[in-house]
Design brief:
Blueprint: H1 8-22, E1 26-41, E2 47-52, E3 58-67, E4 70-79, E5 84-91, E6 93-108, E7 114-121, E8 125-130, E9 140-151, E10 154-166, E11 169-176, E12 181-184, E13 187-190, E14 194-202, E15 207-221, E16 228-230, E17 233-236, E18 241-244, E19 258-259, E20 264-267, E21 270-272, E22 278-283, E23 298-301, E24 309-314, H2 318-341
Helix pairs in contact: 1-2
């Protein structure tokens, strides 16, 4: 019995052509990362906070402070491992803003053009106005957030939400990808969802900057007034969340059961003592949601999705197709010869 082997060079050429079509390679390097914050109370001076990225480190700005009947809270943070978030909140007379921004340089390190996609997940959060006393003329509370993904200097995906309450009632406005939000009245949830963005064709050896930015804000002018009755309502656990229930004064989930997404929580009516109003916006750091007079329901998230990833799919040129087909034809010819020689 005599067998003819296919020529090693031809076999390697065909395999290489196949790998050129099926393989992908991308290098992503963090080149900038910032956490920011700014706040003022009772019309006073604004304090600005900034934490910038050094190699292999993290960024974090954190401030909780009160002055008279006003208070502010902010926390923006991130790390190279993927944890990140921003929260802005306040009560009384206040202005608060925060943000987290990550910039990565993405390089197509393969030898062929690649079709690139960016896959990432939104960390659950919320936009909430907490009405203490009825808001009078000139009084308001508002909160909002925005996500923005850019390739180079151009925005390729964004989403925003703003919730404002004043003497006329509460209005909510949304922009960009509005499917991130669910709720009503003075509470809207940021859902824990995944998104995929087409980055287009990236040539061999080409690099580009991909940035991800989350900003939050909370502002308000309010004063304490009469006690206020809050009507009974329900809260539906949003996608990507779990909620702890009946946890006692400090809760935090210890010893409590979790409520899965879709669970409806009945909140009874209750009186709110006359006090100043406030607002809150966050993603990545939901803290607690006050569902009723006992403060016994706490919300949290099930895991952190991190920054997301860029995937590359080769885009072969006609010559590459020809090389692949020719190489596969050679392998087929060699296989037929082997069968005849058996």
């Amino acid at each position: 019995m005599h067998r003819h082997a296919s020529h090693p060079l031809l076999r390697q050429t065909a395999v290489a052509a196949t790998l050129a079509l099926l393989g992908s390679a991308a290098l992503a390097q963090v080149t900038a990362m910032d956490a920011t914050g700014a706040f003022s109370m009772n019309g006073g001076a604004t304090t600005n906070l900034l934490s910038s990225f050094p190699p292999n480190s993290s960024v974090d700005v954190l401030q909780f402070e009160g002055l008279g009947t006003s208070n502010v809270g902010l926390h923006s943070y991130g790390s190279t491992s993927g944890d990140f978030g921003s929260r802005s909140s306040g009560m009384g007379v206040y202005q608060v803003s925060g943000g987290f921004k990550l910039v990565q340089t993405v390089t197509n390190s393969s030898a062929v053009a690649q079709s690139a996609k960016f896959t990432f997940s939104i960390t659950p959060g919320m936009v909430q106005n907490d009405i203490g006393s009825a808001l009078g003329t000139g009084q308001y509370v508002e909160a909002g957030l925005k996500f923005d993904v850019k390739k180079g200097s151009g925005s390729i995906w964004d989403s925003s939400a703003t919730l404002r309450s004043d003497e006329l009632g509460t209005t909510a406005s949304f922009g960009g990808d509005t499917s991130l939000y669910a709720g009503s009245g003075t509470l809207y949830s940021v859902l824990g969802v995944t998104r995929e963005i087409d980055l287009g064709v990236i040539n061999a050896g080409e690099s580009f900057e991909l940035s991800y930015e989350l900003t939050t804000f909370a502002n308000g002018v309010s004063a304490a007034g009469d006690d206020r009755w809050v009507e009974p309502t329900t809260f539906t656990v949003p996608e990507g969340w779990y909620v702890y229930g009946d946890c006692g004064a400090y809760g935090y989930g210890y010893g409590c059961g979790t409520q899965p997404p879709g669970t409806v929580i009945d909140v009874p009516g209750y009186w709110v003592p006359g006090m100043v109003s406030g607002s809150h916006a966050s993603s990545g750091d939901p803290f607690e949601i006050r569902f009723g007079p006992d403060d016994k329901f706490y919300a949290s998230i099930s895991g952190n999705p991190g920054y997301g990833s860029v995937s590359l799919q080769p885009v072969p040129e006609p010559a590459t197709y020809a090389m692949l087909l020719g190489g596969l034809g050679v392998l087929g010819w060699a296989a037929r010869r082997r069968r005849r020689a058996v």
